[in-house]
Design goal:
Helices cover 26% and strands 29% of the residues. With 210 residues, it is an alpha/beta fold. The strands form 3 sheets. The protein has a 6-stranded mixed sheet, with helices on one face. Strand 8 and strand 9 form a beta hairpin. Helix 4 packs across helix 6, helix 5 crosses helix 6 and helix 6 runs antiparallel to helix 7. The protein is globular, with a radius of gyration of 16 Å. It starts with a strand and ends with a helix. The relative contact order is 0.14.
């Protein structure tokens, strides 16, 4: 599976296009701020939009959803059920992105990994060789846990799980904080929060995120 990263909006958000080369079927991850830019890429590459995947429901990650849902009747929009209450408008094709779900995209499979913490319904999307981490894990940083519905304890548990991903996996975060991309191996070595989770140092993690 291939992907393209787009920096969009005033908060250095990332939106992504992920597609299966054999079928030209595509998914959008966190379409926001500049949906026309994503649409132009889909047209240029002759990709067929089949779904939208949301890592969580904060407005800066979802404000482009209705642009595509309005043009594609019944377009599947995946968002964990715990975050769906935050949507101002519920797309007709809204579906739950539940832990362990295998979402087919052409010949490929995208796996949902529940990573509560930044929000209760935060998820990461796993494809072979890569993880799209939303606002859970950034390059050298972790997601905020001082917002309504966030939880430092849940984020620690999620980081323990993320620390178990293959080191060779590419990391594609939800914002350009300290860098645009990395690998899980580099983050295990240099990201304080991931290091603490890897070492099982729960109390130190909880102190560090506050």
């Amino acid at each position: 599976m291939k992907s393209m990263q787009f920096k969009v909006g005033p908060m250095d958000n990332f939106s992504y296009v992920v597609w299966d080369e054999s079928s030209a079927e595509a998914a959008l991850i966190d379409p926001a701020w500049e949906p026309g830019k994503l649409e132009a890429f889909l047209k240029k590459e002759r990709l067929a939009l089949k779904m939208v995947l949301l890592t969580h429901a904060h407005p800066d990650h979802v404000n482009g959803v209705n642009y595509f849902a309005g043009k594609n009747s019944g377009l599947p929009v995946y968002l964990n059920a715990e975050d769906q209450f935050m949507l101002e408008e519920r797309p007709a094709g809204l579906r739950d992105a539940a832990e362990g779900d295998k979402i087919r995209l052409g010949a490929g499979v995208i796996t949902v990994m529940r990573t509560a913490g930044h929000t209760q319904g935060s998820v990461c999307y796993l494809v072979p060789g890569a993880v799209f981490s939303g606002d859970t894990l950034f390059v050298g940083e972790c997601g905020r846990v001082d917002l309504p519905g966030s939880s430092p304890e849940a984020l620690y548990n999620s980081f323990v799980r993320l620390a178990g991903l293959p080191s060779a996996n590419a990391l594609y975060p939800g914002h350009s904080y300290n860098g645009d991309t990395s690998t899980m191996g580099v983050q295990k070595e240099y990201n304080l929060y991931l290091k603490l989770a890897l070492q099982g140092r729960r109390e130190d993690f909880l102190k560090a995120v506050k």
